[in-house]
Amino acid sequence: MQQYDSRNKDIKVFIGDGLYPRNEAKISVFDSLVQGGDGVWEGIRVYDGKIFCLNEHINRLMASAKTMMFENIPTRTFIENAIFQTLESNNQKDETHIRLTLSRGKKTTSGMDPRLNQFGCNLIVLAEWKPPIYPDEGIRLVTSSIRRNSPQNLDSKIHHNNLINNILAKIEGNLRSADDAIMLDNYGFVSETNATNIFMIKDEVVYTPFADACLPGITRANVIRICNELQLNFQECNMSLSEFYNADEVFTTGSMGELTNVYEIDGRKIENCKSASILERIQTKYKAITKEEGERLPF
Fold first, then answer.
1. Is 57 helix (H, G, I), strand (E, B) or coil?
2. Domain containing residue 182: CATH number
3. Is residue 249 part of a domain?
């Protein structure tokens, strides 16, 4: 479980068009986030004075907002400047996780109809001191009974704030003393966990599920890129739980947790039958690109 970091006691949060102290950072009860979870978001990490994959995250935020038919979306320049202002106000240049949220905005009265949103979008930039959240020794997963959303129900390509599907799976994981829960798609194939994409390695081939019922994550894309650069065999395919149980290595990927080893799934130990760890090679390369790449902070 994540722990409170005392460095976050006096952080400032950007809401709408300005910065507010943490204890004053609030939104209206008429905001669409309160009314229906009607918003889109991104999780972004800061490394050594640089924001990693900033363009990719803003592109995805804009794409989600377009799909949701948001109106009066802030410009890319406005969003970038809000992020820079927030980080500078908190003197955050490293070990920082940004929760970037764009709400459809405030309504004239409570209700579902987006035509009630007549004030434009509401941007929130929450930057916290937060190192990678998973333990160094890795994590234990269990399988949830909650299925990941199909595009027939709610397309997971929209990175939206209505996370009840994931939260219910996380609750099941908590009740079984696991770090997170694996979610299957409607056909019973592995999709992702409640919080991350998932990969496995077997006989020196790196596999990950098709992104049919899950978000094709930015960290996921970087891992695929790394596999190509390291000339590792890589495949996307439908995958069953039994394949994960019998993998040589399993790991999860996400901005907040980076690349995390999985040592157990549903009581089955993940045992590396090979002498060398391909995951360690991928992790080493990932750490290198987080140091080399990113949008340099202007302060």
1. helix
2. 3.20.10.10
3. yes
CB contact set of 110 (below 8 Å; sequence gap of 6+): 30, 35
CA distance 11 to 2: 18
- Which amino acid does the sequence have at 118? Q
- The verdict on residue 188 lying in a domain is yes
Domain carrying residue 144: 139-292
Number of structural domains, the chain? Answer: 2
Let me know: does 86 contact 13? Beta carbons within 8 Å: yes
Please, which residues have CB within 8 angstroms of residue 287's CB and are 6 or more apart in sequence?
none
Give the pLDDT of the chain (299 residues) as one tens digit per residue: 888 999 999 999 999 999 999 999 999 999 999 999 999 999 999 999 999 999 999 999 999 999 999 999 999 999 999 999 999 999 999 999 999 999 999 999 999 999 999 999 999 999 999 998 899 899 999 999 999 998 899 999 999 999 999 999 999 999 999 999 999 999 999 999 999 999 999 999 999 999 999 999 999 999 999 999 999 999 999 999 999 999 999 999 999 999 999 999 999 999 988 778 999 999 999 999 999 999 999 99
Residues 147 and 282 in one domain: yes
**Domain presence at residue 205:** yes
Q: Taking the CA atoms of 106, 110, 112 and 113 in sequence, report the sign of the dihedral they define.
A: negative
What's the distance, CA 10 to chain centroid? 25
In this structure, the answer to whether residues 117 and 206 fall within a common structural domain is no
Token pair 């149980």 is found at 245
Sign of CA dihedral 236, 239, 243, 244: positive
Residue type, 86: T
SS3 content of the chain, % helix, strand, coil (to 5): 30, 30, 40
Residues 163 and 44 placed together within one structural domain of the fold: no
Domain boundary among 94, 129, 164: 129
